[in-house]
Design a protein that fits this description.
about 325 residues, alpha/beta, TIM Barrel, 11 helices, 13 strands, binds S-adenosylmethionine, binds iron/sulfur cluster
Amino acid sequence: MPHDRFGRRIHYLRISLTDACNMRCVYCMPEDQTFLPRKELMQDDEILTLVRLAAELGFDKIRLTGGEPTARAGIVDLVDAISSTPGVNSLSMTTNGVMLAKLAKPLAQAGLQRVNVSLDTLDPQRFERLTRRGSLQDVWAGIEAAQSAGLEPIKLNVVIVRGYNERDVSEIAALTRDRPWQVRFIEMMPFAGATELQMRGMVTHLETRALIESEMGLLEEVNGAELDGEARVYRIPGAAGTIGLISSITQPFCASCTRVRLTADGRLRLCLLREKEVDLLTPLREGISLDEIRQQMQDAIWQKPWGHGLAQEEIPLNRVMNQIGG
Ligand code: SAM
Ligand code: SF4
């Protein structure tokens, strides 16, 4: 099991399957974003090799993300192969949900266990303004398909952007009243591509909580508001589901971080909010032995930075969010 030099046990790998996306969310990328040529992306066999090496090191938890992971050709077969890799016990996906109406069932049959679906508003016009080209109806159909396919518990990821969707916070939180879902409000983080909006429009978890409580009454803590992954979890009294608040900026959870990321072009990104990356794809393509690549992974993990440097105005500007894999 790999450890970093701070003693954190790192066993959770998030893989960006592609930087391409069928949406252009304002907090993620610029409207005219271009995507990497296909040959620069990891091919299926390369992903599977790196997953196998990671699993041999002790990674047992994998999340597929992007860009939009369902936009990758052959996604069902890839999920099937990853889920069959010895040592991989948990396989989930973060998706915008647009393709789930079609893909939820085959993905579940291929071994996908859970999905997080991004949904920032229940208002069709505000949805279009935020995503620039998405359809709320498709996403909602996708969420229902995910539930029917047993990709549960359904988690909804919500990024609140000042001036775009603060007024939607309570309505989205209220979805948990009669659904056993977890709605997770995520503080917007700064990267390249949309940095100005990300810095100006961030809504803190305290403000989000206050917005919910002003309409729903006081939230109850679940498990003493202990961290569940990166979220502190609350409940509207009597609700079937829960509310997660993810305070990556104002109250980071670096001490309990267990993850690293693999970018769509095969770099191990050691902290979401730090530029440091280690290229694994080039040595793999150069034919370096798999033992050496496994060792490079282990050495990189040892060097994982403690956490972000936003307080010192160190903003990671070498990539746009969709290229890293959120
Ligand atoms: N396309 C998929 C989706 O939207 O769910 C997966 C990739 S997306 C980059 C992963 C998650 O990152 C989404 O939940 C999205 O809302 C979130 N995200 C994107 N840009 C962000 C930012 N600047 N700050 C915080 N979260 C962000
Ligand atoms: Fe696409 Fe997801 Fe980024 Fe939105 S957040 S543009 S859906 S990658």
